[in-house]
Design a protein that fits this description.
single chain, 365 residues, mainly alpha, 75% helix, 0% strand, globular
Length: 365
């Protein structure tokens, strides 16, 4: 087939849009955005995820363990962030109902039967956010990622125990690297005299709850019409109710009554901002996955954790040993390797979903 010579303008257009059809008809039919525009969108979304996630960690550290605030009420901080999330969900739902097309958000109506069906997951959700904040209260931001690094290991363990899903040898080896990095990090924190055993235990429990939350979320989603935002609403509603007796039992209401900054607009502004970041992280996480892929999201999260660790060491003017940095690299490297291995295995299954006849006898052992 003879083709007319391409003009330089058409070549430039093809390069920018990534089109392979010289006539440009394929690009017009598919409606793909220009390459530079897509690259800019991805860069903005990833940057938004990084800024939101890192800001949330540093702000929560300020609220939970700031010498200037001296507020010893981690349960109340977590409770207030759940209240902010509920208010935001209802506000966005009302906006979507009153002004269709303004924002894409499902209609929310409190149904006690749905709330009861979500309750078991909400208990795990409460454990996840509470242990996360308690870990951050007792350990430094620099050690925070290592303290909560066993989530991948628990994912593998619980997938086998609860779902009977086996894991490949390569994936298990990456988990071994993560465990080694975790233990080395704990050892080096102890050697430097900065180890909080309580904070480390809370970090391990937070990792366990994150894994349980991921598994049970899949089971509960049908009860909320497979809507993550409806699940977020019910989880936080249940959390607000369940946190109230904890506030009474742990005496945090008495602590708040005698808190010096209880009437400070700055304090409540920081508390509300922490709730906004907590709500926003769910949105920007979904946004990053939408514009990239789950694999790229995991890689971005690992890179963000590395940057956050370096930033924390610089901000708090800490000095860390070579082995301490090695432990962080082992955790981040093991996590990245696990993500790559799982992505490679999934791609391999998609390309060859069923084993050949001569391989069936060796598969599933």
């Amino acid at each position: 087939m003879n083709r007319a010579p391409l003009k330089r303008s058409r070549i430039l257009h093809m390069a920018l849009t990534g089109a392979s059809d010289p006539s440009g008809e394929a690009e017009a039919d598919s409606g793909e955005k220009p390459f530079l525009l897509r690259a800019l969108q991805i860069a903005l979304v990833v940057s938004l995820y990084w800024v939101t996630s890192i800001s949330m960690v540093f702000l929560n550290k300020y609220l939970l363990d700031s010498p200037s605030l001296q507020l010893d009420a981690p349960i109340f901080v977590t409770f207030y962030q759940c209240v902010v999330t509920v208010v935001l969900c209802k506000g966005l739902s009302a906006l979507a109902t009153c002004c269709p097309g303004t924002v894409d958000f499902p209609a929310l109506r409190l149904d006690l039967r749905v709330a009861r069906s979500v309750l078991p997951l909400s208990v795990v959700f409460i454990g996840m956010i509470t242990f996360n904040n308690l870990c951050l209260k007792y350990v430094g931001v620099a050690f925070y990622n290592v303290g909560r690094s066993l989530t991948t290991v628990f994912n593998v363990l619980l997938s086998y125990l609860l779902l009977k899903q086996t894991t490949s040898l390569y994936a298990l080896l990456t988990c071994g690297i993560i465990i080694g990095g975790f233990w080395l990090g704990v050892d080096q924190e102890g050697a430097e005299g900065t180890l909080s055993l309580l904070g480390t235990v809370f970090g391990v429990l937070a990792s366990l709850c994150v894994s349980l939350n991921a598994i049970y979320t899949k089971k509960v989603l049908p009860a909320v019409d497979n809507s993550i935002w409806r699940l977020t609403f019910y989880n936080n509603i249940n959390a607000c109710v369940l946190f109230l007796p904890l506030l009474l039992l742990l005496g945090e209401l008495r602590t708040l009554w005698s808190f010096a900054h209880l009437g400070s607009a700055h304090f409540w502004g920081m508390m509300t901002l922490g709730g906004l970041f907590g709500f926003a992280i769910g949105y920007v996480t979904g946004l990053q996955i939408k514009f990239t892929s789950p694999l790229t999201h995991n890689v971005s999260g690992t890179a963000k954790a590395c940057f956050q660790t370096v930033l924390a060491v610089l901000y708090y003017e800490e000095t860390k040993s070579f082995l301490w940095w090695t432990s962080n690299l082992m955790v981040l490297g093991g996590s990245s390797a696990y993500t790559w291995v799982r992505g490679w295995e999934m791609k391999k299954v998609q390309e060859d979903p069923s084993p050949r006849e001569d391989e069936k006898s060796t598969v599933g052992v």
